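Journal club prep — side note

Before the paper discussion, L.F. wants everyone to see what a predicted structure for a comparable chain looks like in token form. Sequence:
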Amino acid sequence: MTEATAPPGSMGKVGDGRHDPVMRSSVHRKHADLGATFERRGAWLVPALYGSLDEEIAAVRTTLGFADVSARGKLQLSGAVDDHVRFLAGATLEPLHTAPVTSRGLLARIARDWGLALLEPSAERDVMLALAERETDHALATDVTCALSGFLIAGPLLAGFLARTVHENLSGVLPGRCAAASWARIPAVLVMKDLASPAVEIYVSSDHGRYAWEVLQRLGGTPIGWRALEQWGWR
């Protein structure tokens, strides 16, 4: 997708007269409607700020905030993924657990034969090439960056939010764990984060991205831009 954007690394509204290839999430227009300013991360245009940076950071520390993190690179691992898991995480990983990725990011092993690597924006190509060079039999790595929308919800009120939107019992899904569940009545992968405040990343089909954002606007508290997330300590 191509549109006029601000130069990479700069802040500003879309439309400075320059044409540059850019990726946008399925809810990009929703961010614009909220008055967001945008910034490049890799090939992606992300909402960097909605208003006050201090207020956005305060939301995840004291109440509840939500963010669009669809720009994450995403690789789905399927099949006999043990070797891929060891390569990415530097160690073995049991199902329903997460671990940092050695090249920056997070690996969620949802099941014995299913995992999701969550990477820096636009890092998925290099990681895919590295996995392909290993020629691991019976394991498949698929780029699902554009197929999945991702959202982060964080703050002391997270438990109440999950109780209202997830039917399954998540009492055992602690920080550092992950699970497949029905969230807001749609299939989702939930990745519990180990951060200063309770936090979860939720991944759904991009077909459901706009619906997911509408749910978050009703229940998720304050919209948070990438600048606040990064200053707060998310990655």
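L.F.'s comment for the group: The longest helix spans residues 124-134. Keep this in mind when we get to the figures.
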